[in-house]
Design goal:
The complex is a heterodimer. Chain A is an alpha/beta fold. Chain A is about 30% helix and about 25% strand. Chain A has 11 helices and 19 strands. In chain A, the strands form 3 sheets. In chain A, strands 11-12-14-13-15-16-17-18 form an 8-stranded mixed sheet, with helices on both faces. In chain A, strands 3, 4, 7, 8, 9 and 10 form a 6-stranded antiparallel sheet that branches. In chain A, a hairpin with a 5-residue loop joins strand 5 (about 75) and strand 6 (about 80-90). In chain A, helix 6 crosses helix 7 (about 270-280). The longest helix of chain A is centred in the middle third of the chain and has 18 residues, at about 235-250. A 4-stranded parallel sheet of chain B has the order 2-1-3-5. Chain B has a two-stranded antiparallel ribbon with strand order 6-7. Chain B has one domain (about 1-275). The longest helix of chain B is centred in the middle third of the chain and has 37 residues, at about 85-120. Chain B has helices at about 15-20, 30-40, 45-80, 85-120, 125-140, 150-160, 175-180, 220, 230-235; strands spanning about 1-5, 25-30, 145, 150, 170-175, 185-190, 200-205, 215, 240-245, 265, 275. Chain B contains 9 helices and 11 strands. The chains are: A alpha/beta, B alpha/beta.
């Protein structure tokens, strides 16, 4: 008896860039039409092709994806001014990138992709962004005509701790009543959260659906000295814990116990939230940390983050040497494609071992507001779930 | 027909569809509106209700933590390959632990309600007594009582505050949350919600008109029905009460002792869904 074994290979369709390279003549007009048709980067299945057009000696993609070479060099297609490189891009991913260009001795860095209009907004500006197959902007951050809108009112508080007046936004849910008590969420970088994450729309929608509790949200602005005030800064912590929180508790019908109070922040704002609760343990029930810049060193002080990170590293190193319970629950999230993924992964264990309940979500995304927007539902529904489990109709 | 739509909260008065079904013969009890009135006119009750809610929230949080740990333990043991005798013994003992947490929770709820009654002094409250009298009069003259769904917590709060406890001979129709409120024990479940699968939680005692039944409306839309380990625990957890699945369109007439009709769909001890009376 003969057994034949036939292997069937599922052939991947040929990439657009490879088809282009077979074209003859491969002139400027052909490339123009190619770019007009495909745009850039070209996402095909689980692969993305980055393109650069122009004269240079070297063209590189700069990114923060662990595992890919950085910089990632592009190849020039012979006899053309088109450069390309293809990478694997897992489904659902969003990757931030910029180009680095070299002409002789001249090097130009942080160049956004002129062929790609999509940008990811981050604390240090906007970068080009590419979304893989399967990534979709969540529908719950789009305006829903059925959802009643909460109110956003501007408040002003004179801060002795910060020696200035602090203007902040206060979200009051639709149907705000004084006969109930609301949880309080205090958000660092509040205006950016409102501008870049549609936070107000997200609150309206998730509250309307009963996924998140009706809550009062204070959106704090970052001061002019953000990198100082958010880096474990005693006056900032005093302002939040000893001035803002008591003022809000006195003025609005809020849950009186710490479990009804959450501090939130992303990047350095996450450090501000964590360090404030560490300075005032037991004052806040939970933390919502998005890509928190919780950088630390195990030996020595060479953290690579520059002087602005010195107080952060000092704070995190001190905390890691003596971990303690600062809140009851922490929701943490971080993008896989950002350098902070390693410290965040490590801090999950540190926080858990200190006796806190931690839920940690990783995303195939980077250090940007769109990533933090996309994780809002995960965090808010876990920290302050709404009435959905009570509603049967 | 006296009707309760308090579970609809501020949409309580949107009764056009219900009125059409009842052919205009409904007399709406407006319990949510009455609750709102009491909260605005009886300061003592409003303060007591706020304190009560804070205490219940705290209790529910602790209950949830204890329960989840206990359920996770039972589920994880069940998923191991064990000798049948050990598996059965571990399941029974694990369920007893869960039952004891449920019992502790309900006992504490009772204590908190006692505290609320003592501090709110409803008997001396003019608005509460007036509303209770009006509600009682409406129910006394009704041929039946219909309780709609919505927010089961608020619904129960209204039913209790206004002493809605219909006499045994009065036919009562409940749907969705309304059906849950008619049972002895209201159980919440929302496995398909944004926070993922969490254990079904006892919330409160119901009116007890449908004894020995745990009403589970929209179970297929809210409960993970594909995990027998979870369903086995659910079926055994409530003693002799049966988990009655009320999926869209299901209609079940429950007898005075909690008797279920032939074919009513319940979760069996084996973690599978059976019709009552079906050959096993």
């Amino acid at each position: 008896m003969t057994i034949t074994h036939r292997t069937t290979y599922k052939r991947r369709p040929k990439l657009a860039i490879n088809k282009l390279m077979e074209r003859r003549p491969l002139d400027g007009a052909t490339i123009d039409r190619f770019l007009e048709r495909h745009g850039a980067p070209i996402v095909e299945g689980d692969r993305a092709t980055f393109l650069w057009r122009g004269e240079a000696d070297q063209v590189m993609v700069r990114h923060r994806v662990v595992g890919l070479p950085d910089p990632l060099p592009l190849r020039r297609i012979h006899d053309t001014d088109l450069w390309y490189v293809t990478i694997e891009l897992p489904a659902g991913s969003r990757v931030e990138y910029q180009f680095e260009l070299v002409w002789g001795e001249h090097r130009e860095s942080y160049v956004n992709d002129p062929l790609n209009p999509k940008l990811a907004n981050g604390p240090f500006g906007a970068s080009s962004a590419v979304a893989a197959t399967g990534y979709e902007v969540p529908e719950w951050c789009q305006p829903d005509p059925e959802a009643r809108r909460g109110e956003l009112v501007e408040q002003m508080l004179k801060s002795k701790a910060l020696r200035r007046d602090v203007a902040f936004g206060l979200y009051l849910p639709a149907r705000f009543r004084t006969v109930v008590r609301y949880p309080l969420l205090i958000v660092h970088d509040g205006w950016d959260y409102l501008d870049y994450t549609s936070f107000r729309t997200v609150l309206d929608n998730l509250i309307h659906r009963g996924e998140v509790a009706e809550m009062v949200v204070a959106f704090l602005p970052a001061g002019e000295r953000r990198l100082v005030e958010y880096a474990n800064h005693a006056p900032h912590a005093r302002f939040v814990a000893r001035e803002l929180t008591p003022y809000l508790l006195d003025t609005f019908p809020l849950v009186p116990t710490p479990d009804g109070r959450t501090l939130m922040g992303s990047s350095f704002g996450g450090v501000a939230a964590a360090s404030t609760s560490a300075r005032y343990p037991g004052q806040f029930g939970s933390l919502f940390l998005e890509s928190a810049s919780l950088v630390f060193t195990d030996i020595g002080g060479n953290h690579g983050g520059g002087p602005v990170f010195d107080p952060v590293v000092k704070f995190v190193n001190a905390y890691r040497s003596r971990p303690r319970r600062i809140v009851e629950r922490i929701f943490m999230t971080c993008g896989m494609y950002e350098p902070l993924i390693a410290p965040n992964r490590s801090m999950v264990t540190t926080f858990r071992e200190a006796g806190m309940e931690v839920r940690y979500v990783e995303s195939r995304d980077g250090h940007n507001w769109e990533n933090w927007r996309d994780r809002l539902r995960d965090g808010l529904t876990w920290l302050h779930p709404g009435d959905q489990k009570f509603v049967y109709e | 027909m006296a009707t309760v739509t308090a579970g609809w909260r501020d949409r309580e008065s949107d009764t056009i569809e219900l009125d059409a079904v009842l052919d205009g013969r409904g007399r709406h009890l407006n319990l949510y509106g009455r609750l709102t009135d009491v909260l605005h006119t009886d300061r003592r009750f409003a303060d007591a209700a706020l304190t009560h809610r804070d205490a219940v929230d705290e209790l529910a949080g602790v209950y949830s933590v204890r329960l989840q740990r206990a359920l996770d333990s039972v589920y994880s043991v069940q998923r191991r390959k064990l000798r049948p005798a050990i598996a059965e013994s571990a399941l029974s003992d694990g369920v007893r632990v869960v039952q004891s947490i449920d019992r502790w929770y309900l006992d504490t709820v009772d204590q908190l309600e006692g505290d609320l009654r003592a501090s709110a002094q409803a008997e001396g409250s003019e608005p509460i007594q007036r509303h209770r009298a009006e509600v009682a009069e409406a129910i006394d003259t009704a041929a039946a009582l219909a309780i709609a769904g919505g927010h089961v917590g608020l619904l129960l709060q209204c039913l209790k505050l206004f002493d809605v406890n219909p006499a045994g001979e009065l036919p009562v129709i409940g749907w969705s949350a309304g059906a849950m409120a008619l049972t002895e024990r209201v159980v919440l479940y929302n496995d398909l919600g944004p926070s993922g699968v969490v254990g079904s939680e006892v919330w409160d005692r119901g009116l007890g008109r449908a004894p020995r039944v745990v009403a589970m409306p929209h179970a297929r839309r809210r409960l993970r029905m594909d995990d027998p380990a979870v369903l086995r625990v659910l079926a055994r957890r409530f003693g002799d009460a049966r988990c009655l699945l009320l999926d869209d369109g299901a209609r079940v007439e429950v007898g005075p002792g909690g008797e279920l009709p032939q074919g009513a769909r319940v979760i069996g001890d084996d973690g599978l869904v059976h019709g009552v009376g079906d050959p096993t």
